[in-house]
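Z., the sequence and structure:
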Amino acid sequence: MRIAVTYQDGFVFPHFGHTAQFKVYDVENGQVVRSQVVSTNGQGHGALAGLLSQLQTDTLICGGIGGGAQAALASAGIRLYGGVSGQADAAVQALLDGTLSYNPDVHCDHHGHEQGHSCGEHACGSEEKHGCAGNGGCHAE
């Protein structure tokens, strides 16, 4: 099993399409045997599903993720655990232990937000004053 996590400074990065790195974990017999941080080389959104396929990833843990990226992951046969926040290593261990808290209905769409729209709890502090909450939602201020 190979698990990828959107990654920044040890934590699950809150928005799949903007992640600069993945931390990739190789799992054998229910234990992490190797991990490495991989750059996305500036790729974003749908192209990231292709990168994950090239890395032979079968599972992704992330924060918010849009519908197009979800469809690309599904087409690539990559299982999605979205709406996750916190430390990346802890999230992977929780997945392996069967205790990972995630949102099966995660959705994030920064395009066309209406003023005051909120489907999340906190912002990631971007210049556009929107963010993907750890529960997988987005918040436009």
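The first strand starts at residue 2 and ends at 8. Helices lie at 46-54, 67-75, 88-97.

Let me know what you think.
H.
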